[in-house]
Automatic annotation (TrEMBL):
Residues 191-213 are annotated as: Disordered. Residues 33-52 bind DNA. Keywords: DNA-binding, Transcription, Transcription regulation. It comes from Actinocatenispora comari. This is HTH tetR-type domain-containing protein. Residues 10-70 form the HTH tetR-type domain. InterPro entries: Homeodomain-like_sf, HTH-type_TetR-like_transc_reg, HTH_TetR.
Length: 213
């Protein structure tokens, strides 16, 4: 196979992913047929199947792209000195690599949980990668609150996306996520304030109090 043919095949695969993401977003994953894809792409059914066996494999490939990004970030963290700002630098690096296309894929994943469970079952698991990343960033001094803050730090994009209207500019989603990331990593660097332990409400919704004899 020549280099030109290899590039052509890669370009076709990328085009399929781009058009599929757009159709899945506009029409919905379940409502998008193979015929919709081939007509939008100008491909025959056999040409589409040469690259992807079905719609699920296309969606899986979109998620797999993000998992590869995450694996590269994990490798990067392993090579970094354990400086106090490592969590912030890591979170901002992850955020800087997030594109509008990634946001669209995240929306698709959230809207299609059954198929996402199957994809995760096949080994493409971004959440598991985040767990590995948090284990790398945490140390023996990281208390439970610190681990929660770490988890929240790497969930700012998803939280901002779910809080935003569907027609919001992706740049605004990412800007909001960046502000949240800076706030959370700032909280990581600060010791827990006095009185941080908030009483847990009882069943009736009233703050729990210590028993008095």
């Amino acid at each position: 196979m020549t280099g030109r043919e290899r590039r052509s095949g890669a370009d076709t695969r990328t085009q399929i992913q781009r058009v599929a993401r757009q159709l899945f977003t506009e029409k919905g994953y379940e409502a998008t047929s193979t015929r919709d894809l081939t007509e939008a792409l100008g491909l025959t059914r056999s040409s589409l199947y040469y690259h992807f066996r079905n719609k699920e494999e296309i969606l899986a490939s979109l998620v797999e792209q993000r998992r590869r990004d995450l694996d590269e970030l994990i490798d990067w963290v392993r090579d970094q000195p354990r400086t106090p700002d490592l969590a912030r630098r890591t979170a901002l690096r992850w955020l800087a690599g997030t594109t509008a296309e990634h946001l669209a894929t995240m929306r698709l994943a959230h809207a299609n949980q059954p198929v996402m469970r199957r994809i995760t079952g096949h080994g493409i698991d971004v959440v598991g990668g985040i767990d590995e990343l948090i284990d790398l960033l945490a140390d023996e001094r990281t208390d439970p609150q610190g681990r929660i803050l770490l988890r929240m730090t790497f969930d700012t994009v998803r939280a901002a996306l779910l809080a935003a209207p569907a027609d919001v500019d992706p740049a605004d989603v990412l800007a909001a996520a960046r502000r949240a990331t800076l706030a959370l990593t700032g909280a990581l660097a600060d010791p827990a304030p006095d009185g941080a332990d908030i009483p847990v409400p009882d069943v009736a919704g009233e703050p729990a109090t210590d028993a008095v004899d």
